[in-house]
Amino acid sequence: IRCWSNIPFLTVPLSRAHGKSFAHRSELKHAKRIVVKLGSAVVTRGDECGLALGRLASIVEQVSMLQNQGREMMIVTSGAVAFGKQRLRHEILLSQSVRQALHSGQSQLKDMAIPVLEARACAAAGQSGLMALYEAMFTQYSICAAQILVTNLDFHDEQKRRNLNGTLHELLRMNIVPIINTNDAVVPPPEPNSDLQGVNVISVKDNDSLAARLAVEMKTDLLIVLSDVEGLFDSPPGSDDAKLIDIFYPGDQQSVTFGTKSRVGMGGMEAKVKAALWALQGGTSVVIANGTHPKISGHVITDIVEGKKVGTFFSEVKPAGPTVEQQAEMARGGGRTLAALQPEQRAEIIYRLADLLTDQREEILLANKKDLEEAENKGRLALPLLKRLSLSTSKLNSLAIGLRQIAASSQDSVGRVIRRTRIAKALDLEQVTVPIGVLLVIFESRPDCLPQVSALAIASGNGLLLKGGKEAAHSNQILHHLTQEALSTHGVKDAVQLVNTREEVEDLCRLDKLIDLIIPRGSSQLVRNIQKAAKGIPVMGHSEGICHVYVDTDASVEKVTRIIRDSKCEYPAACNALETLLIHRDLLRTPLFDQIIDMLRVEQVKIHAGPKFASYLTFSPSEVKSLRTEYGDLECCIEVVDSVQEAVEHIHKYGSSHTDVIITENEQTAEFFLQHVDSACVFWNASTRFSDGYRFGLGAEVGISTSRIHARGPVGIEGLLTTKWLLRGDNHVVSDFSEHGSMKYLHESLPLPQRNTN
Predict the structure, then answer these.
(1) One domain for residues 331 and 310
(2) CATH no. for residue 656?
(3) Across the chain, how many H-helices and E-strands are there?
(4) How far apart are CA 128 and CA 503, in angstroms?
(5) Backbone torsions φ then ψ of 689, nearest 5 degrees
(6) Last residue within a domain, chosen from 477, 500, 533
(7) Residue numbers of the domain that contains 428
(8) Within 10 Å of residue 625's Cβ, how many Cβ atoms?
(9) Reported confidence tier of residue 253, pLDDT bands at 50, 70, 90
(10) Cα separation of 218 and 401, whole Å?
(11) Which range is least confidently modeled, 58-72, 414-428, 449-463, 691-705?
């Protein structure tokens, strides 16, 4: 039990100018001096007798890792009372068992009564053991730890404050981790009304206020308060409508309802908030998080320091716009309103957006020019990404045409009946298409993606969250503004939201209660990161676009070079560009093979030789490092195969199930290839570049999916819909269909209503 006397202290720290806390989570990675406060519920076991050794070891590992990165770590810890209670209970039981054995000849442990143990005695018995445990754990990481026991007078007496401050600074200078605790063996019993007093005075009565006081005294950058709850909630945790508060601002206390304190310790959540706000006012950033959850406790401290969305972050800077959670809720509500519109109204919005892309062409290109200039000045983007970032008049015209295609084809997308069944007399079942819900689309360096995806979301009645790369910020801003202008035609402006806050992609992927589907558009690394980070949210997309073209022995000379040139050179940065060229062995050293090589050289395509191809050559091009490579540039791999069967096996082993092509005049060989290659798109005598929603007549695409479930290949409107079942009855109950019931199942298929083909 932590208890301090109610003596107020001045808030002017020693030699401490009023600092400035970090404004955003992303800045926490720059924190050098960090205090980690371990609450009683974190350090102790559930029975409050003994320490949670697994959690403690994990915390020590994280603190050690940060210390070895050059940070200055301090720990304010509880646990002495619990550790001492375990030792004293053991001693009492042992003593009682010995006495009973002497008197009765046998131990009656089950009848023993354990007396109530006084907290200060427990602390005296537990402090040395607790510190020995910390020392043993830190030694595993070649780190020295030092114990500091403080009392009330250490803060009340000016000279003792100076001594404490000097001791801590000297320990930090020597790369030692100070472990600070109240000297519970000598503290007075609890006094009433000894909590934090106001905003200018702090009285230390528990480890929360102790940690806040030390953090400000030591000019700490970050205070991490670990407890047994995830952070602050807008209503008591566990209630149906309780929502975790991501960022807490001074003055928000009225929006929070405080529940009971943790199962052990003196500091409830209200005390933590007051201590956190006091530390924030003193220039220290604060995060309150859960240190007991088995799934996150192993990395909670490092996650916080890396700026990840963990717990509640205290900030003095309130953003001008809504939070991403609020944006997701707005998109949900706007999407439902959008889905309730008539198909003609949704089409009108898309037509309006298409018109705005051409009418506001100059403003769009001016914003895009700013992005291109900034990207070139910073020199961070490779040439393929710069090409993706660039917009032009022809691109905008193509976008507008694609959007009008979407509008024209979307008339009966939502609410379309795809199955009708008569279950029984007057009991009819329908399966109808409905929107998926809220989509999160994350895209890099492709501002043209924004209107495409927006139009598909509008046509399918989905709410949409867009997270674009900062390299396209100006372009995305104006394109989103035009999208919202078009949506305002029918009062559904909120349906499409652009995330402009400093949200990390990994944090967005954790919003499983707000987002229904994630669609990444970007590099293979981006897609892999999102697939790894998404917790409970399905991800639609492909991590790589390793597309193959197989040239068969029966290939037409006229077709080969045209198809290969288009597949590789028309837009080498595209995900549907050729990356590996498979050549039948019999074509080596033939005029056709020479034509292929000459064409690639003229187009300045760098060739990498596969292992088998290299073995046939005396002087070969550089041998490929991996046959599973997406170049995204004027480069490709050439490999040799002995048959169409080997080509299929190679594609299955090294491909990404995206798009693969055979060039041949032999129909039987072509059909074998088409039927056996297990990719989203498989073509015969056609360029890989046809793998595209616009070219498929879908108007546009949200991406190309290589997954096996739901949508596959270029994903248009149909891929953004799911279904629901509508059952219309008349006082029907299941018991009527039992063995002795009055009704029988019919299960008759009914004709579908006529589709609107206008």
Answers:
(1) no
(2) 3.40.309.10
(3) 23, 24
(4) 44
(5) -70, -10
(6) 533
(7) 324-533
(8) 9
(9) low
(10) 62
(11) 691-705
pLDDT of 10:
32
pTM, entire model: 0.76
Residue 293 and residue 213 share a domain:
yes
Cα separations (Å) of 173 from 163, 167, 623?
Answer: 15, 10, 52
Burial class (CB in 10 A: 0-12, 13-18, 19+), 735: exposed
Nearest to 468 by CA among 401, 526, 512: 526
- 519-549: burial string, b at 16+ Cβ within 10 Å, e else: bbbbbbebbebbbebbeebebbbbbbbbbbb
Q: Which two tokens stand for residue 379?
A: 């020199």
pLDDT in tens, 656-666: 999 999 999 99
111: in domain: no
Q: Per-residue pLDDT tens for 204-243?
A: 457 788 889 899 989 999 999 998 888 888 877 777 777 8
Separation of CA 475 from chain center: 24
Q: How much is the average pLDDT of 424-450?
A: 93
Residue 740 lies in a domain: no
pLDDT at 195: 36
Neighbour-count burial for 303-328, b at 16+ CB within 10 Å, e otherwise? bbbebbbbbbbbbeeeeeebebbebb
Looking at residue 338, which CATH number applies to its domain?
3.40.605.10
Q: What angle do CA 660, 721, 516 make, to 5 degrees?
A: 95
Number of domains in the chain: 3
pLDDT tier at 19, thresholds 50, 70, 90: low
> Does residue 109 fall inside a structural domain?
no
| 394 dihedral zone (left: phi>0; alpha: psi -120 to 50; beta) | alpha
Tell me how far apart the alpha carbons of residues 125 and 107 are, in angstroms, rounded to a whole number.
Answer: 26
The DSSP call for residue 187 is P
Q: Based on the domain organization, do 303 and 329 belong to the same domain?
A: no
